[in-house]
Specification:
Layout (H helix, E strand, L loop, with lengths): L5 E9 L4 H14 L7 E8 L5 E8 L2 H9 L1 H13 E8 L8
Antiparallel strand pairs: 1-3, 1-4, 2-3
């Protein structure tokens, strides 16, 4: 297994009237579950200005850490609540280019 950081990107599609509730739920989940998990490095919640989507960008130490997060009972308890508010697509990968100014 590689030592490189694993990036997890979740795209959630939401009705604009429910975006605030979704953001509050995701923040609570990050504060109470995600930040306590082994292998977690960072999370960013990005709210679309039109209210129709939210992106969760997170970095993990390994693919195994992502899988452990997904199977953690506290995380599986949150998933139905999240899916009541939004649809979810996930991408797991590694950065191939990162530039800045």
């Amino acid at each position: 297994m590689s030592d490189e950081t694993i990036t997890l990107i979740n795209l959630l599609k939401v009705e604009p009237s429910k975006q605030d509730a979704l953001m509050a739920l995701l923040k609570q989940n990050t504060d109470t579950v995600i930040r306590t998990l082994a292998g977690w490095k960072t999370t960013r919640l990005i709210a679309a200005k039109d209210g129709a989507s939210v992106v969760i960008y997170s970095e993990w130490e390994s693919a195994a850490a992502v899988e452990a997060m997904r199977s953690d009972p506290r995380m599986t308890a949150y998933l139905p609540k999240i899916l009541e508010l939004a649809s979810l697509e996930s991408i797991v990968g590694s950065a191939v280019l990162s530039e800045g100014r």
